[in-house]
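Q: What residues go here?
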């Protein structure tokens, strides 16, 4: 298949073969070997993608934490252990402890208490609204999956119709080419027969001319 300049993707491609009709490679194995040798000499395809291929999608561009978690999962790294120190209530290391140390311990206890209160609130909200939210989310995912499957089936149908149309068109054109090739062979054969007849007539004319000259000399 030959095409126009690859830098102009909107131009129509030119096909110089009929893959649904041509069977020279099957009829002549030596041609198949030549094609394999030619392909082996071809340079390797470029490492860059085609201009029509969209750039890769960058996930979690605005969320470094999720991006780091995605990298961890892709690299098959284990999940780091939970930090349990933040949930402890350490007392001052020295006895009886200074006022500043007890104040830090008190601030830590109040922060832990507030954290547990927020967790209880979130759990209550999740218990009340979480199931419905997940049902809605699952329904949306199912609809997206149905739309994607429908688009895929439509694309497969378009591809099948296009291939069927190409096959019918190439079969029809191939039959015309075969008819024209047969007609061309017949015309060439007729021309060769006419040329051979003309050569025979020329030889007969030369023979008669020589015969006439011999008779005239006698």
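A:
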């Amino acid at each position: 298949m030959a095409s126009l300049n690859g830098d102009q993707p909107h131009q129509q491609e030119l096909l110089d073969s009929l893959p649904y009709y041509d069977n020279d490679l099957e009829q002549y194995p030596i041609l198949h070997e030549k094609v394999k040798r030619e392909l082996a000499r071809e340079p390797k395809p470029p490492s860059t993608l085609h201009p029509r291929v969209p750039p890769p999608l960058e996930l979690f561009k605005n969320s470094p934490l999720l991006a780091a978690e995605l990298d961890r999962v892709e690299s098959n790294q284990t999940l780091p252990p939970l930090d349990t120190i933040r949930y402890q209530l350490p007392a001052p290391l020295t006895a009886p402890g200074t006022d500043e140390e007890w104040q830090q311990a008190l601030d830590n206890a109040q922060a832990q208490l507030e954290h547990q209160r927020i967790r209880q609130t979130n759990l209550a909200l999740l218990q009340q609204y979480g199931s419905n939210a997940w049902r809605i989310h699952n329904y949306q995912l199912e609809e997206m999956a149905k739309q994607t499957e429908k688009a895929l089936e439509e694309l497969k149908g378009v591809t099948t119709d296009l291939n069927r149309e190409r096959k019918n068109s190439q079969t029809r054109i191939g039959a015309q080419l075969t008819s024209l090739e047969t007609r061309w062979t017949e015309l060439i054969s007729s021309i060769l027969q006419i040329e051979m007849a003309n050569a025979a007539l020329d030889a007969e004319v030369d023979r008669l001319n020589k015969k006439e000259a011999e008779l005239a000399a006698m």
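A: Context that may help when evaluating the design: The two ends are 73 Å apart (CA to CA). The helical segments are 24-27, 29-41, 64-74, 99-217.
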